[in-house]
Write a structure and sequence with these properties.
The chain is mainly β. It folds into six domains: 2-116, Immunoglobulin-like (Sandwich); 119-207, Immunoglobulin-like (Sandwich), CATH 2.60.40.10; 215-318, Immunoglobulins (Immunoglobulin-like), CATH 2.60.40.10; 326-428, Immunoglobulin-like; 436-538, Immunoglobulin-like, CATH 2.60.40; 545-600, no CATH class. Helices cover 13% and strands 46% of the residues. The chain has seven helices and 41 strands. The strands form ten sheets. It has a five-stranded mixed sheet with strand order 1-8-7-3-4, with helices on one face. Strand 38 (486-494) and strand 39 (499-507) form a beta hairpin. Keywords: Disulfide bond, Glycoprotein, Immunoglobulin domain, Membrane, Repeat, Signal, Transmembrane, Transmembrane helix. The chain crosses the membrane at residues 544-572. Residues 1-18 form the signal peptide. Residues 14-109, 208-315, 324-425, 434-535 form the Ig-like domain.
Length: 602
């Protein structure tokens, strides 16, 4: 089952126009021959064919340039023919071939079976009907390969039924009913001193003498499932051929007979045509309006015959809800920011209900290839659920170039229902500027005066407009409310190269409490968060200023002190008589001058 799903995937590989596909069944240990179909414009003689193995273990390209290695691997390639000398389970998988300079590709699914495999019956490639007492020759499927290119010669051919001797040259002079069965045909080939075998099977069906006895249902197939819509009218024809007009063809619902009464919800019509050789019969099962009950039943078409009774059983299945094909992402005209020389992957995702729809990429008007060695390629994956098929085409740029920036890329969903597409472009990222605080410095100390207004700017640069710059007081956020004693203002300027940010911390009137706090300017960024912490310090009075103040104070106070002292002395002399001798001339003169100065004071 896994191999079949992979084959379906490869058949609808984007960018490839499949010519055809086929299944090849081969027994383990035997020779497998794969032929690439030819088509108009390419002939065997002048066309170069490229083979690709999409097996589970590996993917290898087979062409004439590696013939020595291929022979060592037991693989021979010449033009449209690929031969695996001894097929094993490791060779099982999908192979594709394409002609030179063509995007068309054909697919072959190789199935390798062991003798014990339950699926070995699929190796039956031909069937043969013969009639009793008549001569009969079995013709097994022959690859009809021209092996002269590799000097491969046919050694022998045998055809036998299990447990019985082989008929000479696969010929029955007078075939019997018991000769019916599965016959195995084996061809032996000689190459490079080794014997290699090829096996195919043919089913021999021996019927009574032709014209006299025949009874078989042609359609539908046994266990066939019919997709229907609820409440719809459905007609299913059961066709049979017989040689006797006494044979009967009719329908059963479960174990009950379906009637021919056309007024019933389910009934059948019967018609027949009698020719000279056979009688063609048709029993048409009619559902007037398909119901849930009809979906739950089995219906059997039965051919009743004196020679042989046969039947086929069919079922009805409700059609799945139709999902219109649509591209989910990317958006139309979406622009992707990229760096030059970087690896970029852009996924195009779509949903559909049809496994024949195709999702692929275009560069301008040219198809993007799936070759992963190219500078630009895409990968395709899909998941089939019960409700829808999810498809993804991943566009890969191994190393983004200037040319890639100048191209348009289109993801296209090709569908029989509706074709849709989205176009995207690449845009070079502007140079990245890491976020950083320019000033102040971390642990910087600012000298301030108590009761003064102070503004401290925190400046930063960044390249992202989602970055944030703010102040903290200790572990608490400083607010932007300008009525508070301490707040901050935020401004920014966006240039072509960078964003300049400023958070201004404002102290309306510096207090003692402000001097005891730490203040942190923080730059919050997805790339990197940074911060600086500052403190306030009260300004100290300088020694020079203090000395000058003292000197001025002395100049002012000293004359006043001397003047006051002499006034006291004079008062004491005058009023208390402390003098016991007459003052000398100098003293009297000094006293007079003091008295005169004092008398001039207002």
């Amino acid at each position: 089952m896994k191999g079949k799903i992979l084959l379906v995937l490869l058949l609808f590989w984007p960018g490839v126009c499949p010519l055809s596909f086929q299944e090849v069944h081969v027994k383990s240990g035997e020779m497998a021959v794969l032929q690439c179909p030819s088509y108009r414009g390419y002939s065997d003689g002048d066309a170069e064919v490229f083979w690709t193995s999409h097996t589970v273990d590996e993917m290898k390209l087979f062409n004439m340039s590696t013939s020595a290695e291929q022979r060592q691997m037991g693989v021979l390639v010449h033009g449209r023919i690929l031969v695996i000398l001894r097929a094993s389970v490791n060779h099982q998988g999908n192979y594709s071939c394409s002609f030179c300079n063509s995007s068309r590709r054909s697919w072959i699914n190789l199935r390798v079976y062991t003798v014990e495999s339950k699926e070995s019956g699929k190796m039956i490639q031909d069937s043969k009907t013969c009639y009793t007492d008549k001569s009969c020759t079995l013709y097994c499927h022959d690859e009809n390969i021209l092996f002269d290119t590799w000097n491969i010669t046919r050694n022998s051919t045998t055809c036998h039924k299990e447990g019985e001797p082989s008929p000479k040259d696969s010929y029955f002079l007078s075939v019997k009913k018991e000769d019916s069965g599965i016959y195995t045909c084996t061809w032996s080939y000689l190459y490079d001193g080794q014997i290699y075998n090829m096996t195919s099977m043919v089913k021999l069906d021996v019927q009574p003498s032709e014209i006299t006895k025949k009874a078989v249902i042609i359609s539908p197939e046994n266990s066939q499932e019919f997709d229907v819509d609820l409440d719809s009218t459905v007609v299913i024809d059961c066709k049979a051929v017989t040689s006797s007009d006494t044979d009967d063809l009719f329908w059963l619902s479960g174990d009950s007979f379906v009637e021919t009464n056309s007024t019933l919800p389910v009934f059948y019509n019967y018609t027949w045509v009698n020719s000279t050789e056979e009688i063609s019969m048709t029993a048409s099962l009619v559902f007037r309006q398909v119901s849930e009950e009809d979906l739950s039943k089995n219906y059997t078409c039965k051919l009743q015959s004196d020679y042989e009774t046969s039947f086929v059983t069919i079922t009805l299945k409700q059609n799945e809800t139709f999902i219109p094909p649509m591209i989910i992402s990317p958006k139309k005209n979406q622009e992707f920011d990229v760096d030059l020389d970087s690896t970029v992957v852009i996924d195009c995702k779509a949903v559909t209900s049809s496994d024949t729809d195709d999702l692929f990429w275009l560069s301008g008007d040219s198809f993007v290839e799936t070759n992963s060695t190219l500078p630009v390629f895409y990968n395709y994956t899909w998941v089939n659920s019960t409700e829808e098929i999810s498809m993804t085409a991943s566009l890969v740029f191994r190393q983004v170039s200037e040319e890639d920036l100048s191209n348009n890329y289109t993801c296209k969903l090709q569908s029989d229902y509706e074709t849709s597409f989205v176009t995207i472009t690449l845009k070079q990222n502007e140079p990245f500027i890491p976020p950083v605080i320019i000033l102040p410095k971390n642990k910087q100390e600012f000298e301030v005066d108590l009761d003064s207004t102070v503004v401290i700017d925190c400046k930063a640069v960044t390249s992202s407009d989602i970055d944030d710059l703010f102040w903290l007081s200790g572990d608490s956020f400083v607010e932007t409310n300008s009525t508070l004693p301490v707040f901050y203002n935020y401004t920014w300027v966006n240039s072509t190269e960078e964003i300049n940010m400023t958070a201004s911390l404002v102290f309306r009137q510096v207090s003692e409490e402000d001097l005891s706090n730490n203040y942190t300017c923080k730059l919050q960024s997805d790339y990197q968060t940074s911060f600086v912490t500052i403190t306030l310090k009260q300004k100290a009075v300088s020694h020079l200023a203090m000395g000058l103040c003292i000197f001025l104070a002395v100049l002012v106070v000293l004359p006043v002190a001397i003047y006051t002292m002499f006034n006291i002395i004079l008062w004491l002399q005058k009023n208390l008589g402390f003098y016991h001798r007459a003052p000398d001339r100098e003293t009297a003169s000094f006293e007079d001058s003091l008295l005169n100065r004092n008398s001039r004071r207002p």
